[in-house]
Amino acid sequence: MAGRFAQRPVPARAGTVPRQAAAESRRWTPPGPLDLGLVLGPLRRGPGDPTYRATPDGSFWRASRTPDGPGTLRVALRSGTAHADAWGPGAGWLLGQLPGMLGESDEPDAFEPRHRLVAASHRRRPGLRLMRTGLVLESLIPSILEQKVTTDEAYRAWRLLVRKYGEPAPGPVPERMCVMPEPRTWRMIPSWEWHRAGVDDKRASTVLRAVRVAHRLEEAAAMEPEQAHKRLESVPGIGPWTSAETVQRSHGAPDAVTVGDVHLPGIVGYALAGERDSDDARMLELLEPYRGQRHRAARIILLSGRTPPRRTPKMPRVDIGRL
After folding, report:
1. Where is this region: Disordered (predicted)?
2. How many Cα atoms within 13 Å fall on the side-chain side of residue 250?
3. How far out from the chain centre does Cα 276 lie?
4. Over the Cα atoms of the chain, what is R_g?
5. Residue 171 CB contacts under 8 Å (≥ 6 apart), including other chains
6. pLDDT given for residue 144 in this prediction
7. SS3 15
C-alpha cells in the first residue's frame, strides 16, 4: 500500500498560481450543431471537480496533464464557432486536440433511432457529439475511484486528492482549479491520505498499479477501442466497467457500452421495454439494434429522463475514514 514510501509528496499550496505566459488561441467550426455542455459534460466529476468549470458566460474550462505538461483550456461557442484559449506547457497540445475533443471524429449521422423514446430524445439534442480527449489516465483514475461506491463518495475522493496533490492550473482560471497529480505523485500518496479521502485499499491499490504503467496505458489512446479495452483490463482491478467509462471519454467510442453498472440496465430496460429489473444481459439484448452505437444510444436514453420508479434504498455510503 502507499504508506510504505518514506518520502511524502508535497501537496499543492492553496492560492499558489505560477507566473503565466500569454494565452495561445484557436478557432474551430464544427461540421454541424454542437452543444458544449453535452459534449464536455462527461469530463465533470461532480460539482466541485477542481479540473473542470462551467462559467456563466458560457465558457467551459478544463485543466489537464498532457504529454507536454500541465495545461488549461477554455472553450466557448460563438456564432457556431468554438473559440479556445489555452495556457501552460500543455497549451499547444490541448489546442491541437480541440477538434477531436469536440467530436470532429464522431459520426452522429450514423445513428438511427429504433425506438420512439430514443428518436424523441435524439431529436431534442442535435448538438450531442462524442468527445475524444486523447488522454487515458485523466479518465481512468476517477473511474477507478467510482468503482462500487456512490457517485458522491467518488467525487469527494477525486476532489480531495486532486486539490491536495495536484498542482495549480496555469492561466487566469475561475476560482481554484488544479491539474491532476502526475503518476509519480499518485504513487507517493500515503495510505492514510487515501483513507481520509474515503478510498479503500482495493481501489487505491488499483490506482497504484495503473500509474506504475502509466506510459503503457497512455499508449492505448492511439489504439482502436477494442485494443484499448484489452490494454486497460490487463491491469488487475480494471474490468469492463472501468475500461468502458474510460474509453468513452479518451476515444469517443460510440459502442463502448457500460456493463456492470448498478443503475444503467434498469434504466435501459424501463425506457425500451417497460421492465424494471433488467440485468446486463437484458440491457445488451435491448441495445443490440444499436450495435456499433450502443454507448450513444445509452446516453440518449439517459438524457430522455425516463427512469424507473425507485423501489429500493440507494447504495449505502460507507465512511471508511471512521472505521
Report:
1. 1-33
2. 29
3. 27
4. 20
5. 20, 23, 72, 74, 85, 86, 87, 88
6. 98
7. coil
* Residue 8 clears pLDDT 60, i.e. is over it: no
Terminal C-alpha separation, the chain: 18
Average pLDDT, the chain: 92
Residues paired with 78 in a beta bridge:
81
Which DSSP symbol is given to 176?
-
CA dihedral 50, 259, 200, 135 (to 10 degrees): -40
| Parallel, antiparallel or unpaired: strands 69-78 and 60-66 | antiparallel
- In sign, the C-alpha dihedral spanning 216, 221, 222, 223 is positive
**Residue 2 and residue 207 in contact, taking contact as beta carbons nearer than 8 Å:** no
Burial class (CB in 10 A: 0-12, 13-18, 19+), 60: buried
- Mean pLDDT across 199-221: 98
Q: Which amino acid is at 90?
A: G
Note whether 34 and 125 are within 8 A (CB): no
Q: How does pLDDT run across 64-98, given as a tens digit for each residue?
A: 999 999 999 999 999 999 999 999 999 999 999 99
Exposed, middle or buried, 190 (CB in 10 Å: 0-12/13-18/19+)?
A: middle
Look up residue 219 and give its three cell numbers. Answer: 499508449
* Biggest CA pair distance of the chain: 59
Chain segment 285-321, per-residue pLDDT in tens? 999 999 999 999 999 999 999 999 876 555 555 555 4
- 90: cell is 500543455
Look up residue 170 and give its three cell numbers.
496555469
